[in-house]
Each structure stands twice: as structure tokens, then as C-alpha cells.
Amino acid sequence: MKIIDELHSKGFDRASAPSMTILSRNEENGEKSSMVFHPIMPGVYFVYNNFHSQEAVEADYNEDTKKMIEINHCRRGRFGCKVNGRQVYLGEGEMEANLVGVIRENPEFPLGFYAGVEILIDPEPAKAYLKDVFPEAVEQIDFLGWQIRRENGAMFIRSLPEINHILNEMYQVDPKVETYYLKLKILELLLLIRMVTPEEEKAQKRYYRQQDYDKVRAIHKEVVSHPDRRFSVPQLVQKYGIGQTTFQSCFSEIYGKPYYTFVKHYKMHKAIHYIEETEHSMAEIAGMLGYDNPSKFAAAFRSVVGCSPREYKKSSERMEHLTLLGVEIEE
Asked: Which residue, of 203, 235, 254, is where some domain finishes?
């Protein structure tokens, strides 16, 4: 598949296994990102994406790959880019479809991680295969392509319970029947997508100046670089010269949570790291995270994690950071 070749040329290692191709790369933070491609039927690939980086890579697509349709569902994290001059974000539980050739400027994973699934459809070979076995799917591929072109190459897809159910099943498929099962689910998903219109809420979102995005990203970098300090919104907006309302709404758009909620979750995520990986006392951890009172730290921890720091330390069960909190820590 040409897209696999193009991504391989961008620094991903390539390995093959029965019925799949795996692209992976080692990140600067010591983690490994991966994309696992499953050929489902002629012209259709199903991809598991798992990234541990803020940098997202876009391949240099040729004329053939630009005709392909890409459907993305975000399970954890966030993906952001600029499309047709507008900054857009795909958050947890959200779904979008685009033409592979649409230009996505400054692609990023603002939380430092991203996990989700992707369906790649090359229309002509897919329709040639499906025309005799499932003609309704051929009509849907044409209709989906028309919808995406009408939305200038990219559109968000409104969530329906039926669609969410199919997507959740795709993350839990038994490897023994994976290819056959995913084929059925992709066909089912294509038919359901026709029932929904592009997400109007996304089209009505407020858009910000590039300098606003840049200032919010600079604020985020300062805050996560100094977890022992407490930064108030008035203090930050004055320092960086951005309106308070603009900062609050722009921060939520990029990072998926209001500023104070994000900081609280980030610090508790950091606390879990200290509890699991270091020998620091609870009082020391509280101070390292900007709490001058261990009891206030314990209350904050309980409100996010559901138990006290000491209870968590004693527990033999360790929750996954990403699943639990949805924020990535900076080492």
C-alpha cells in the first residue's frame, strides 16, 4: 500500500506479520508509537493508531493516495491540525472523515499521546470488489466521498449510539476472527454514516487567531514544566498578553479540559508517577506538586483518582495513567 510506503519513508520502522503490517518509531520520551495496518478487503485497510508524542507526521501523498477516504475515531488523547485555514481538533469519542489528500497543516497531538482507529478506503478497488456482493456499500462510498468534498475535504461525523457501539466492538475484536469481523463492522459503519449529517456543532465553533493558539501553547508549556508552582489565570493572561475569556476557551479547545481542571488532573497524574516510581513521602510529593498542605493534596488526589494517595500506594492494583486521567506527564 502506497501510504505505508510513504509513512515508512518518514522514519517509521516497518515489520510484517500474518495479515498485518506494523509501522513503529521510538520517541524521544522513550515510548514507542505504532500504526498497525490490517488489509480487510481490496481497497480497504483498518488501522490501529497508538502514538506517544506531540508530533504527528503527515505523509507526502501522491495523486493516487489523494483520492482515498480516511475515517478516524479518537479513543484517547487529541489530534489537532489546520484545515482550510481553520484550526480543528479531534477529541476523545469524536469521529471525522476526510480525503487523504486534504492539506492538514501543523498536525499535532497536544496532550502528548493519541490512540484510536482509522479506516482507509481506496474507492475504485473497494467498489469493484463490493459491487456484486454488497452494492449498497458502493453507493455509500460514493455518497461519503460527495459529502466530504462538499465540506471542503474534511468533516466531523455526528455521534450516534449505534455508531459508538460498532466502534467500541472494533477495539475488542478476537484476533482469531479479526479480519472477517472487521469487514462486517466496516460495512455496517458505512451504512450507518449515511444516516447522519456533518456535525453542525463543529462548524459553529469559534476560531482563534494563530497568535492566540501560540500563546496558549506557551502557557501550557510553562505550567507543565513547573508542577511545583501555582499559576492563576489572571497571572498568566497578564504575562502573555491574552484575554481571559479567549485563553479559557482556547485552552479547552486545544487540551480538552478547562484550565484548572487540566492542571489538577495533570498534577494527580504526576503524583501517581511519583507514588509508583519513587520513594518520596506523601508530604514531599505534595510539595513537589505545589501543595503546601498534605491534606489538601490528599483531597485533590481523592477527587480525581477515587482514593487517597496512601490507599493507592497500598493497593496492588495500578490503574493505567492514560485511561485514568487522559493527560500525559512530562518527565
From this structure: 203
**pLDDT of 315 above 80:** no
Is 186 among the domain residues?
A: yes
pLDDT higher at 141 or 152: 141
Q: Cα–Cα distance between 81 and 108 in angstroms, integer?
A: 6
The CA-atom distances, in angstroms, between 263 and each of 223, 238, 248, 284 are 8, 19, 13, 19
In the predicted model, is pLDDT for residue 54 greater than 70? yes
Number of domains in the chain: 2
Q: Which residues of 222-243 are buried (b: 16+ CB within 10 A; e: fewer)?
A: ebbeebeeebeeeebbeeeebe
pLDDT given at position 329: 46
The letter for the amino acid at 280 is H
CB atoms within 10 A of CB 111: 25
Say whether pLDDT at 72 is over 80: yes
CATH code where residue 30 lies: 2.60.120.10
Q: Is the pLDDT of residue 204 over 70?
A: no
